[in-house]
Design goal:
Layout lengths: L6 H17 L4 H18 L5 H12 L2 H19 L2
Helix pairs in contact: 1-4, 2-4
Length: about 80
Amino acid sequence: MSVLDNFGEWKEFLGNRVKQAEGIGMSEETISDLAYQIGDYLNEGIDPRNHQQRVLKELWDVADSDEQHMIASLMVKLVKSETEH
């Protein structure tokens, strides 16, 4: 089973990667840029596997580049807030 199959597992996976990136000194901006690149890759090459991914894809598809960067930044913020609890 892939981490993409379950949205909760995806958020946990992403949260762990964000912690690792922070641990090696990556800036918030760099982490958000990487999240944008991952989001763009997933949008282009991966079919949504659950409702949450479908919503994110639909938002990504109608967003301009600035808005896509904001979506990526919000995903980083979401997973960071969940790992702090």
